[in-house]
Amino acid sequence: MEILIISGLSGAGKSSAATYLEDMGYYTVDNVPADIILKFAEFCAQSDGRYDRVALVSDIRSGNGNFQGILDAMERLKQGGDICRLLFVTADLETIIKRYKETRRRHPLMSDGMTIEQAMHREQELLLPLREHADFVIDTTLMPAAKLRNELYGLFGDKSARGKLSVNVVSFGFKYGIPLEADLVFDVRFLPNPFYVPELKHKTGMDSEVYDYVFSFPQTKTFIDKLEGMLSFLLPLYAEEGKSTLVIAVGCTGGHHRSVSVARCIASYLTALGYPAFENHRDITRG
After folding, report:
1. pLDDT tens digits, residue range 168-179?
2. pTM: predicted TM-score of the whole model, two decimal places
3. Which residues contact residue 274 at a Cβ distance below 8 angstroms, ignoring those fewer than 6 apart?
4. Is 126 helix (H, G, I), strand (E, B) or coil?
5. DSSP class of residue 240?
6. Residue 254 contacts residue 195 (beta carbons within 8 Å)
């Protein structure tokens, strides 16, 4: 079992880090007191592999000022054969104070008459032992969200799938509206329509006769060549910016013939490139 303890300064980005780790397959729990880490690990060990990668956020909110308990729990877990590491997330005081002002949240250590800066200095002192023993330290001072995600993928992600998008390719009919979740929308109503071919009218793009008809025209092949070139250029850039899921919507009039055929072709192409690509033909049974 792999357990990652996330700690660090309030406002430094621990919650964002936990969210990205969850996207990577970790089971994440926020605000875990040090004295229940071992009990939680025992529960996970009895879950038949359902919780074999766990990320626990334990920080100033869940401690009493003495964080030796976290280090002791980690040592016990390592002795038991588990992989247990500590990630410490930090940022400079000016950046954290600015973030607190923007969110109007109250620092966990602030008491009446105390400034955010005083609370931050106190938190730094209390968390110093954890920072000194951390396996990884990430400073988010000048780090946009996409950079933090990529940093975490580099440390904890599946190296074979690092930076890869999960792509949903959706075919649809414009008469029923554009899918609300679409990131990219392509209109293929310029292609010859199998609907007007009597023997194809009641078939769909899932049938080889319709698919072959749509791709029998030179304009279809030219369009696909240009579209594949654009997607091979765009997708790595989306991944670099931290996007984990991309929805590509392909539309024709009714969502039965042309859009289904082209969506199938795109999904097959993206799969060949190594992206997890999934087909969803939204309107294929409507009308």
Report:
1. 999 999 999 999
2. 0.64
3. 164
4. helix
5. H
6. yes
